[in-house]
Amino acid sequence: MAKAKKKSKAKKSATKSKAKPVRAIKNNAKKTVKRAAAKAPAKTKKSKKSAAKTKKPVKQAPPKKKKQIVGEGDYAASRKFDKDQASFVKRNKAKIPALAKEAEAALDGPEGDSLRAAEQEARDRSTI
Question: Which of the 8 DSSP states describes residue 73?
Answer without folding.
Answer: T
